[in-house]
């Protein structure tokens, strides 16, 4: 959330709000969440229907979000709402999660963790100065935020996956060098790409659709690694309540969160390779 939401707050929040809030997240004193997806709007995010209507100098929000990571532990939410039709009718707010009218219901993942939640908004009053950007800026905010979700936050994920590769090598009694080599290559490729992205960002570069390449490489490497564990450690995924099993199951989410693998490939085809819509 730090890598994903802090750049958004700095770019879009009123400066006083960013100055007050960002240190709370950076310092670990608060957790925040990202309320984008809805039951009927995931890949087609622009179809979202959670609505915000103006009232008494502020806004009143009604609707539902889903798959909201860490919502049950969060003090604030970067929330996308609809204020008018179309892409230009999406407006973002920074909402206090203890506002009256918000109900959070944790959802258990198949790897047994309450990672995300359904979040219901029933006539939730949001002050006018909690808007991020201007009315209708929400789509632009989302397009600026998603490249971070698809790249910069992977640096430490890749470091974590390297520790799992080391563990796999240590636990394998009958090493298959070719399979381990492929798993290593996938991780190394993702790390090289991630390094390039971090460097570009550090030099003041702007992140955009090219981060879909980072996302595809990370998801492919993560799933290959745990597929290799399944093949080299017989039964450890299917038959045992092991850490390998939990991580194997979580790795399946890598081609879904932050935009699915199909959506990333569409972006690469259309926006990077200019292959047209078909
Ligand atoms: C672990 C995890 C954490 C998440 N955390 C958050 C969060 O914090 N906040 C948040 O807002 N959301 C979160 N999400 C939700 C995530 O962003 C959505 O699941 C994702 O965008 C896909 O949307 P969907 O689930 O509605 O699937 P759908 O959009 O219904 O897609 C279903 C299938 O159809 C395919 N598909 C859809 N459209 C196309 C197309 N145009 N071309 C080709 N194939 C297509 C998809 O690739 C997919 O295989 C999280 C998801 C996961 C798994």
UniProtKB/TrEMBL annotation:
Family annotation (Pfam families):
Acyl-CoA_dh_1 (PF00441), Acyl-CoA_dh_M (PF02770)
> Which InterPro entries did the record assign?
Acyl-CoA_Oxase/DH_mid-dom, Acyl-CoA_Oxase/DH_mid-dom_sf, AcylCo_DH-like_C, AcylCo_DH/oxidase_C, AcylCoA_DH/oxidase_NM_dom_sf, Mycobact_Acyl-CoA_DH
Describe the location of the Acyl-CoA dehydrogenase/oxidase C-terminal domain by residue ranges.
136-273
Can you give the residue ranges of the Acyl-CoA oxidase/dehydrogenase middle domain? 33-124
The coenzyme or cofactor needed here is: FAD
So what family is this one in? Answer: Belongs to the acyl-CoA dehydrogenase family.
List the lineage, top down. Answer: Bacteria, Bacillati, Actinomycetota, Actinomycetes, Streptosporangiales
Keyword tags: FAD, Flavoprotein, Oxidoreductase
Could you tell me the superkingdom of the organism this chain comes from? Bacteria
Q: Where is the signal peptide?
A: none
What name has this protein been given in UniProt? Acyl-CoA dehydrogenase family protein
Q: Which GO terms describe its molecular function?
A: oxidoreductase activity, acting on the CH-CH group of donors
